[in-house]
Amino acid sequence: MSTNDPFADRNALDANPFADPSVRNALSSSDRAYDEYDSKPYGGQDDESIAAPRLDRGDGGASNNRLEDIQRRERELEQRERDLQQRADHIQKHGRNNWPFFFPLIYHDIQAEIPPGDLQVAMTHIYYLWLLLVATLIINLVACVFIGVKELISAIVYLIFITPTSFMLWYRPVYNGFMKEHSLFYYMYFIFAGFHLAWSVYVFLGIPETGSAALLSTINSFNDHKLVAGILGIIVTIGFTLQGLGNLWYYKQIWKHNHEQGHTFAQARAELASHGAKAYFTRGSNV
């Protein structure tokens, strides 16, 4: 008859504590968890959980760049719109006649009416050339006072006639051409600026008794010991030379611009028939 030892299980556990089923289950679960963790890269995280954050970071950077680019373009567009509105407001507010300053007859503002860039720079230089022409005509008149009566009378006619006609017939047309980009104004400029260039050669020569104190008259003044007339004649010669060469340069540049813009003489005739003189005196680019 066998004897049951109530301490048998207890003694076995004391001898081998890992024989306890609960301990073996715990160790088995721990081993499985460790194996799963060890089998996965980077500390047991799923591949998808690793790839997803990296993908999100990459897409987020590209999206941010695109967003910044769009915002930058929007800001540039808004700035352009503000600039255009400021120009329109300026013209509306200050669009009353402002030129010439001593007796305003027309509105003249290169910065407000001529598009920024090369056209505005060219128009500013052409304006300076026109002012140089007027200044030369004034000095020419003073020089002719010391030369003779015939020259003086012709010089007065030049100053009174050339000053307004040059402004209205070739300066203002190119001004309107740059502002409105109408063929009519460009061809009007080409015709009358061509006459002005030919006249510039004529007055540069300074033929005696023609009202010009330039080259030949200057030589005669020094020969006749008229030093004041001779010195002023040098200034006149230089003035007619500079304004003539400057206008010749811009004549070529404007001719090139006219063809690049596709303007034709047929278009100019059509615009003349359609708008007549209205386009010349109307502000803005609508007419």
From TrEMBL:
The keyword Protease does not apply. It is a multi-pass membrane protein. InterPro entries: SCAMP (IPR007273). GO terms for cellular component: recycling endosome membrane; trans-Golgi network membrane. It comes from the Eukaryota. It is found in: Membrane. Residues 1-70 are annotated as: Disordered. Keywords: Membrane, Transmembrane, Transmembrane helix. This is Scamp-domain-containing protein. The keyword Transmembrane applies. The chain crosses the membrane at residues 127-149, 155-172, 184-207, 227-251. Pfam families: SCAMP. Coiled coil: none annotated. One of its GO terms (biological process) is protein transport. Signal peptide: none annotated.
